[in-house]
Amino acid sequence: MTYDVILHNIGQLILPKTSDYPLKGQDMKELNISEDAALGIQDGRIAWIGSDAQAGSLKSTERIDAEGKVVSPGLVDPHTHLVFGGSREHELSLKQAGVPYLEILAQGGGILSTVGSTKKAKEDELFRKASFHLERMISYGVTTMEAKSGYGLDADTELKQLRVIKRLKEKYPISVVSTFLGAHAVPPGFKGKEEEFLDEMAGLFDVIKDEELAEFVDIFCETGVFTIEQSRKFLQQAKEKGFGLKIHADEIDPLGGTELAVSLGAASADHLVAASDEGIRQLTEGNTVAVLLPGTTFYLGKDHYARARKMIDEGAAVALATDFNPGSCVTENLQMIMSLAALKLKMSAEEIWNAVTVNAAHAIGKASQAGSLDVGRSADFVIWDVPNYQYIPYHYGVNHAQSVYHSGKKLWERTPYGEIQFSSAR
Ligand SMILES: N=CN[C@@H](CCC(=O)O)C(=O)O
Ligand SMILES: [Zn+2]
């Protein structure tokens, strides 16, 4: 047969283990690396994986020479707040002055400031802005991602955000999973009437299902936002309507959102900086993925990070995400998060790769399609301009992607200007 594409001369091919369940314990610590591999691609899918020597005798329409570089599955970013109006650079000085995140929110800033800008923005404007950020994510190697609403807090604006996500799914070939986060903050008019507000947001579940606007429902369970009991009721209602569940849990105070996520069979519990020992123990028993967001802890200037070591060593499944948003983590760069995971969460390179591929895919219900490179799967991969897989967390703050492919097609490639060029005067 003649393949569409043969990708050969791969220095290291990263092959995370595929499994029906997220990787935990010893499985998270292992990563299969092939140093003599080639891929055959047909109709956008991986049709063959073999050795470089075998690849020499295969016929193909196109041959891509990986020049001895690293090839991995396309990265998966399982937690982003991609669609929003405005920006919040004015809050940086408040953060520098030590005003806590929840205090800024309580004063009507933070999330509520972005809610104001998002309400004002037209759908097309939100779409253009989100497209810009999404394209930048692709440039950093992401081929599957999640995007949340949550900057509307009223029916019209939440649905406007979700429709933007739906348009992004239609426009871009990458996989985008949508999450309804109408319960992201308490709008000013509903202070003390949180249940009433949650009932209003739950009232949108049917239209969201009917218009296929979201796969998951999420809530910010935190001091001054929504309580455990409110979160339980809201998520239970979402589950009954057939949504997958996510929860912003134990980010600042240990309310028990981690335990709630496991008890409801949520796909993920996210943040978990303050997760209790008992919460971590329960994570080891279920299949809820702990989605850790070290970029947020870094950006909020905190010293205490999520206890990834304890989670992994005790057998929880851990994934990593950017949490890209305009207030608490303003970066599209998942590679930077990989470095923070190494430096601040003390995760090994093997754990980090599993956390941004296979486990991240499990956290958004995409594990059968994304996060690894088996025969039959969509040919979503990245060629990295690095000598080995440990190099990306090590050399931080820059983009190591050379080219990014989805379904066998090149989506993005570094321009010659992205290469370091010295003038002849040097
Ligand atoms: N913590 C709650 N929500 C977002 C922040 C959103 C914002 O500050 O705009 C998060 O995951 O970090
Ligand atoms: Zn978030």
UniProtKB/TrEMBL annotation:
InterPro entries: Amidohydro-rel, HutI, Metal-dep_hydrolase_composite, Metal_Hydrolase. 4-imidazolone-5-propanoate binds at residues 88, 151, 184, 251, 328. It catalyses: 4-imidazolone-5-propanoate + H2O = N-formimidoyl-L-glutamate. Pfam families: Amidohydro_1. Zn(2+) binds at residues 79, 81, 248, 323. It comes from the Bacteria. It is an enzyme of class 3 (hydrolase). Fe(3+) binds at residues 79, 81, 248, 323. Its main location: cytoplasm. SUPFAM superfamilies: Composite domain of metallo-dependent hydrolases, Metallo-dependent hydrolases. The keyword Cytoplasm applies. Keywords: Cytoplasm, Histidine metabolism, Hydrolase, Iron, Metal-binding, Zinc. PANTHER family: IMIDAZOLONEPROPIONASE (PTHR42752), IMIDAZOLONEPROPIONASE-RELATED (PTHR42752:SF1). Belongs to the metallo-dependent hydrolases superfamily. HutI family. Catalyzes the hydrolytic cleavage of the carbon-nitrogen bond in imidazolone-5-propanoate to yield N-formimidoyl-L-glutamate. It is the third step in the universal histidine degradation pathway. This is Imidazolonepropionase. It comes from Mesobacillus jeotgali. The lineage of its organism: Bacteria, Bacillati, Bacillota, Bacilli, Bacillales. The gene is hutI.
